[in-house]
Fold each of these.
Amino acid sequence: MIALLLRDLRLALRAGGGFGLGLAFFLLVAVLVPLGVGPEPATLARIAPGILWVGALLACLLSLDRIFALDHEDGSLDLLATAPIPLEGVVAVKAAAHWIVTGLPLTLVSPLLGLLMNLPPDGYPLLLASLAIGTPALSVIGTFGAALTVGLKRGGLLLSLLVLPLYVPTLVFGAEAVRRGAAGMDVATPFLLLGGITAGVAALLPFASAAAVRINLR
Amino acid sequence: MSIWEYANPKKFMETSSIALPWAAAGALLCLLVGLVWGFFFTPDDYKQGSTVKIIYLHVPSALMAINAWLMMLVASLIWLVRRHHVSALAAKAAGPVGLTFTLVALVTGAVWGQPMWGTWWAWDPRLTSFLILALFYLGYIALWQAIENPDTAADLTSVLCIVGSVFAVLSRYAVNFWNQGLHQGASLSLDKEENVADVFYFPLLVCIGGFVLLFLTLVLLRTRTEIRVRRVQALLARERMA
Amino acid sequence: MDLTVTDLACARGGVTVLERVNFRLAAGAALILRGPNGIGKTTLLRTVAGLQPAVAGDVSMAPESVAYAAHADGLKATLTVAENLAFWAAIYGTDEVSRAMERMNLAALADRQAQNLSAGQKRRLGLARLLVTGRPLWVLDEPTVSLDVASVALFGTVVREHLASGGSALMATHIDLGLAEAEVLDLTPCRARSPASAGPGTDDDPFAGVTA
């Protein structure tokens, strides 16, 4: 399974595009929003947590269809399904690779974008922490959506429609943690809930995703 | 006789053709009685005036919007465990009906909210949850539409329905956590003091009965259609192969 | 343990295409599936490989014994020949990469990216993957597509060596690999009967009998 993770990471690096695209999109959101809502620092500071979380979520969404589509096209998914590693493991590794390629870089550059959005100083560690805890859930849930649509030719839009409602709890708790923190309120509860969602989906959703892949390969 | 006998398509078609007119007539009768009673023979609310009367559409449709999803969940589980095709098609049939009830609940809610709260829409937890529920329905219906092979579609939508149910509950709690709302409490809970008065309560019950029967009628009708479509498709596939 | 297929029926796109397929494949033997296009050779191979469930009947073999090679080779364009093979070797936990490259005449191409290979070379790489799996039962779907005469002969030799070392091979192919000892199974008689000729009671459509 480590071999699969390394292969996916190596492919992401070599293919180009896939790696930087999400980041570029995230940056664009942070640039476009102030242009759209106006430059008042107070307004930007108030909406920064939400905008950055929504931006990270959409950036994550961009690359979801690549999780299985390439492997499905070239036949590797068939071969992986007959390989001696369980499909649940394959799916979990794919989600992990997706997080390392998108979620992790998004988390790491988020303070920089917080700067652009005039995020209050207290918000930075919370933004970093909430994205670090929350984005793995985005990748795991997204992998489930990708598994459902793996055989479809124009699955991209459908994938977004399927995945976005599933992202609601993660988004709410993630953005809420930063928002409360920036307002000087207690953040333990949203963080615990966010962590609970990530742990829960990471433990359970790979089984549903693997079932969906198996159904799609028939 | 086992209940599973009704899962046989032929048996289902026979039984449903008998049940369908009764369900339809019952729905019509209950809705007529309930709505006429509610609209014309109940007093105006001392606070809300005559606007309260939209409750006879709003509450039953909201109730059925959730119950339709529950029915889809049960039908999906039955399909995954017992592979009864009728069950999968009943789930498919319930999707658009549930979406319609959700939209009716949202629209009637907006119409009611405008005079009461002074706004058509507020990001109240209940309203927001219903909007999210509508998105879940849309995704479910879109997945059915997108997949050609009917058994694959049934399998995948069932998996989505189960996972979606968990996330729908999570979303409900998340949204509650996120905003305390304007919406009044439950209208019908049995232990609360804020229950609606009896004079509104009984016509409301009749209306709910009417909506349940209406749901049953629509789902039976749509399931029968889906079964016929599947039979036709199977025959066409055979013709192409022969 | 041998591969035994009993009364197997398999479906493509929800329609049963093959039924009453019976054969037995012992260690050291090869079986070639024949039949017109569209009869369901690929479907049968996928069913044996465990990628799709059988409609009826039974496939029995030792667990984890199948190495499946489909039309698509499962190659990653941006990985080199050696990296592609090393990945599958790691997945299957074997250490056969350099030997596999040698036997499929790929050693000179080891550091070339798969996207820069010709169609025939890609195919050879796809088949070399079988060697790094270390699995006894090869399930091959048209393995010789885009191979030249020399490569077909080379692959024939590889299959023969595999059989000699106790392996077995089930393949759908129209080209003679030079496997004189291979048995041939014609699937034409196994074509699923149309319901009109099959008579009442044999309809596998779950909605049969629905009239109005």
Amino acid sequence: MSEIKTTSLYDFHISKNAKVIDFAGWSMPFSYDGTLKEHHYVRESAGYFDVSHMGRLRLNYSQIEEINYLICSDLKNISNTKALYSIFTSEEGTAIDDVIFWKFEDDLILICNASNTNKIKTHLDIHSINYEDLTSSTDLIAVQGKNAIDIISNIMSVPDKFSTSKEGKYVYARTGYTGEDGIEVMLDTNDTLAFISELENRGVKPCGLGSRDTLRLEASLPLYGFELTDDISPIEAGLKWTVTNKEDFLGKDVIDQQIESKEHKHLKRFKLNAKQIARTGTICTSDGVEGIVTSGNISPILGYPIGFVLFKSNPADDLVEFDIRGNLIEGNLLYKRFLS
Amino acid sequence: MSETKYLETHEWYIVDGDNVTVGISDYAQGELGDIVFVTLPEVGQEFSKGDAIVEVEATKTVAEAYAPMNCVITEVNSALETEPELINNDPVGEGWMVKAEIKEMDDSGMSYQQYESFIS
């Protein structure tokens, strides 16, 4: 194992009394004021997250055809001011990683999961795609929340949703992973503390990976390693909307066949009417179909346990029985997002 | 009332005559993070030392609190049903979990000083 990595803000996090955890080989802040408080900062006002552990690779437009072949979405034909969520697919149609592309007139940035940076780099190498790794020379700060855009508009001009912008030292897009509006900003590591201090002066609170997880779950967003893996396709994870690539791409035949046959694993949302949380790995059954919980926690806004469950096939019924430490707990599958 | 004693499994208890009050330590609540659900036992339920009496669900993980000695539950802190955060805010006070009648006294828990050096 290589040494544990830290972002440029590690000392700053410690000075804020952050609880730190090891995550994907990085020592990262888990919480500052507590996960629930931070969850509510974002839902009610605004919070910022150091997500500099995520991989940041600069790609070249000259290879857009080759890049487009590796993902299930149409990156090539969207405008050069857009941010795009997409999935690198394998020959078997499964997810190598879920990523964000930032398109600029002159530049293409790929943001991947920290746990997958090396895997993505190897994958790009195999397909002879050049990249410049910006991960250690830059930071990535997510500013998210009900008031995030109002606040950020005092610091930089705000692009449309899912659009990108560059302004002075800021390279950014109006994207996020909390279900709230906001932006994600890449900047030189030397400029990060000044930016954070501008945020804090405007009342934006630091938030850790604990609340990032409860926020993304409540917003029905998948996390690689849980809802998406090397063994789960975008279709199985309920992400058919990302399959917009009309040209040939890696794994396309398998994905097309899954769309056609509907015979594949199915990821579903669930809620429990209980005071137990069905956590990752909890086994359940619905209508005789076996499933396994990929993520589960309380929804701080709704006040009850929620989660994602992966079934071997599509269950006909919405009633599910979870085996939580030997007790059978009833839950329901949900066909809408957790938060309306 | 005797002094507050601590177990290696991070419960605290106070013996008062034939009765004992049980909760979890400040260290334990800090490790668990935000406590969101508490499943309490029924009054009259009997437990042996080491049995799980309370289940605590936190945002980070789930944990159980164990009986410090053989006892029968006489009262539960029902405030925790609606305000589980009492355990985070005041673990050795308002965040108490159960009171029980002692069936077999076992006062072998650690003093606060001993517990402090145990967790450090």
